[in-house]
Amino acid sequence: MNKSKSYSQLKNVNFNQSNRLIKARKLTHSTNHNRALILKNFSVNTSTDSIISQITCGPLEKLNYRHHPANPTLEIHFVLSEGARKFYNYCTTTGFVVVDGKRLEVEWANESNTEDTTGSMGVPKYLFNEIVHGSARRVLICLKIVPDKPLNHLSLTDFPNPELHLSKDFDIDLIKHDFSKYGEIVEFGAVISRKLCFSIHFTDIRSAILAKTDLENKDSMMNAKYHDWFFWYGKDPTDKPCYHL
């Protein structure tokens, strides 16, 4: 089976609408609109993915969790300044963004509250091109076909043997070790599939690009190790609309 053909068939994620929106605002990378927000008022025990699950209005370029015992913050950089503006308005006008029973507080990132001032500028042009033309996102989907596992449930006459779903050579700790060298990872998520499938959520789009590029390089150790896997960019969980009542 041709892997490139199979890859296109398995890649069941449509970025066309999101990319059209980003491309329509392609001058964003050269403008001076702020794309960065600081989120506050959450417990130090609150996980990063719990906060991210409440973020809407567009994909993120990167994020940075500051583990301050008294006042933890999460700095998020949207790909588009429009996404940052919409989410800021959504938080400040509705009060609907709640994490662990607390309403998130949001403020614009500036020189007084962050050392990373890149959010006041557009996404670098090279990265912007990867986002628009390569559908690059912070999320990588990883899929592997498990040998001898029946994929057609209609062929099963009774409840499947649990051992059929066991991948004995799958070691999540080893995978974490292999992929953490590309950058900080927010979480590993399960993906519903009849095949062995999971997602890797990086804190930065660049990390996902580095990982995918290395995996596709036939001369790399990662390609040799994961040659029987399929990889593609997944949709950023923040890339969803925010609804105003």
Which descriptors apply to this entry?
245 residues; alpha+beta; Alpha-Beta Plaits; 2 domains; globular
What can you see in these coordinates?
- One of its GO terms (molecular function) is nucleic acid binding.
- This protein is α+β, with helices and mostly antiparallel strands.
- The chain has two domains: 3-11 and 130-234, RRM (RNA recognition motif) domain (Alpha-Beta Plaits, 2-Layer Sandwich); 17-123, RRM (RNA recognition motif) domain (Alpha-Beta Plaits).
- 29% of the residues lie in helices and 21% in strands.
- The strands form three sheets. A four-stranded antiparallel β-sheet has the order 2-3-1-6, with helices on one face. A four-stranded antiparallel β-sheet has the order 8-9-7-10.
- Strand 2 (60-66) and strand 3 form a beta hairpin.
- It is globular, with a radius of gyration of 20 Å.
